[in-house]
Design brief:
99 residues, alpha+beta, three-stranded antiparallel beta sheet, elongated
Amino acid sequence: MIDFDQLDKVIHEKARLSIMTLLAGHDDWSFQDLKSELGMSDGNLITHLRILAGAGFVEEERDDSGSRPRTTYKLTKPGRKAFKEYIDVLEAIVRAAKP
């Protein structure tokens, strides 16, 4: 029997799952690139990034050396582990659903 309580509630929300998926596939993403790729507003994106950062899954890096500040985000080691565990649970659900 699958323990659905193993699905991490922080990651499971659609916007946060989207962010985690993008970050898992690349070393880092700029705020503007995430916003463009996901079609989210500034406020909505930053809210979800703060929730992920608060859980220790995402870290922010600011670069103020250029003419325009650039903020990038990447998964932390615990974030990568949590995402892998989340995907493992989803894979178990898919396996169980197949005849």
